[in-house]
Write a structure and sequence with these properties.
The chain starts with a strand and ends in a 10-residue tail after the last strand. By secondary structure, the protein is of the alpha+beta class. The protein is built from 3 helices and 4 strands. It has one domain: Alpha-Beta Plaits (2-Layer Sandwich). The protein has a 4-stranded antiparallel beta sheet with strand order 2-3-1-4, with helices on one face. The longest helix is centred in the N-terminal third of the chain and has 20 residues. Strand 2 and strand 3 form a beta hairpin. The relative contact order is 0.31. The radius of gyration is 14 Å and the shape is globular.
Length: 98
């Protein structure tokens, strides 16, 4: 099954987004508990400081399914992020996600 990558960039300060981040984490955990293969995290700079965005990896049967799932993400619903979604196709290497 294909893997998809959602990248996001924060459009508002962390303090404003914090409640939506908490809801996002609960949303990811709920999906994981339902059997979804999904992982979410922060992007950080060379000093380990948050860089104002995040990355979500998820396995879905199709782009349409991934887009529908991502559309229910509390971070997107908050309007506080700019985001993109793309299918990831491994060409070289193995990260053990098959």
């Amino acid at each position: 099954m294909p893997w998809f990558v959602k990248t996001e960039r924060f459009l508002r300060p962390y303090a404003e987004l914090k409640p939506h981040l908490q809801a996002h984490r609960a949303w990811v955990e709920q999906l994981r508990n339902q059997g979804a293969r999904i992982s979410s995290g922060y992007l950080v700079d060379g000093d380990g400081q948050p860089g104002g965005g995040g990355l979500l990896l998820l396995e879905c049967a199709s782009y349409a399914e991934a887009a529908a799932l991502v559309a229910s993400d509390p971070m997107l619903l908050s309007g506080g992020v700019d985001w993109t979604l793309a299918e990831w196709r491994s060409a070289v290497g193995d990260l053990g996600i098959r």
